[in-house]
Amino acid sequence: MFDLYPDITKERVEKLHALTPKRISFAYANKEQPRRSSSPYIGIFTVSFVETIGLLFNAETGLDLYYSPKNSKFIHSFKSENDFLLVSDWVRRQGTRHFLRDCLELSVALDQNLTDNQNSTHTQLGKWESMAKGQFSQEAIAGLVGCYVSTIRELPFYRDTRYIAAVPPRPGKLYDLPSTLAAKIAEALGIENLTTRFSYAGQKGAIKTLSINDKWAAWEQAGLSFSPALENRPSIILIDDKYQSGITLQFVASKLRAAGAGDIYGLCAVKTLRDDDNQ
User: Structural domain of residue 230, as residue ranges?
Assistant: First the structure.
């Protein structure tokens, strides 16, 4: 029997993490979509995976993506000029968003943090994320909150969600960017912030530099839980400031799912430029 809300397990996370590519962004590596093609079609739209992007594409265009064994990609072929222009406009409106491949129902980053690894030049959102986290810049925090709020209001599924939570800070942490963002976003949108319902039974140390396997184990040792249990399988937006390997977001999502969450929509300010962090 199909489970509408399957558990988010380490095995599922590792299986998806082993696949490439891990992101789709039309502003960077996936340019020139859709593109013109030869008869009998006037154009084609292709992506490498359907996690996240498939649901949003269908919800906003009314069109489906189909797997093509010939191309080893998911495609939509156009016979209608109107449909081609519809998808061209949809791609344009995605801007710098990154559609991420993980175990959440949807997972989006608003941009990547750096323009390149050589010069370590930040994107605008990457600059705000760095300033908000390292310098407690209120201007940067306000800039990030504005981008989160406008994105939630625009994107299907996100805009109808009445609950939000942040990846929870370790106990005693004086300043935490994700929980600060979640509180301000909740206030701006008039939705409920659930972050304070997380608790730790153990110690949560720094896990940023750990390998993927060690990172999941470290989270388990921290004894994270969420209570009281949720009723009626509500959808929840899960906030973090930076998406690196995706392990943290998915581990926290696993606790929300275990506590009764329905669809979980990840939303991060930035995705790290590299996909091979924490290997």
Answer: 1-22+97-279
Mean pLDDT of 144-149: 98
Cα dihedral sign, 56-85-124-186: negative
As for how many domains the chain has, the answer is 2
Q: What pLDDT is recorded for position 205? A: 72
Backbone angles phi and psi of 18, in degrees to 5: -75, -15
- The phi, psi pair for 181, rounded to 5°, reads -65, -45
Q: pLDDT-derived band of residue 2, with 50, 70 and 90 as boundaries?
A: low
Boundary residue ending a domain (95, 110, 140):
95
Can you tell me the mean pLDDT for 206-230?
89
Task: Beginning with the edge strand found earlier in the chain, give each strand of the sheet holding 73-78 in spatial order.
Answer: 35-36, 43-47, 73-78, 66-68
Together in a domain, 236 and 110: yes
For residue 94, the one-letter residue type is: Q
Q: Which of 95, 126, 147 is the last residue of a domain?
A: 95
Per-residue pLDDT of 88-136, as tens digits, reads: 999 999 999 999 999 999 999 999 999 987 778 999 999 999 999 999 9
Q: Report the alpha-carbon distance of residue 6 to residue 257 in Å, rounded.
A: 8
> Quick one: pLDDT at residue 277?
53
Cα(265)–Cα(225) distance, rounded to whole angstroms? 19
Residue 160 has a CB neighbour count (10 Å cut-off) of 9
Are 227 and 112 members of one domain?
Answer: yes
Contact 237, 157 (CB under 8 A): no
pTM: 0.96
Both 197 and 83 in a single domain?
A: no
Q: What is the CATH number of the domain that holds 258?
A: 3.40.50.2020
Whole-angstrom Cα distance, residue 99 to residue 110?
A: 9
Contact 8, 253 (CB under 8 A): yes
Q: Do residue 60 and residue 107 come from a single domain?
A: no
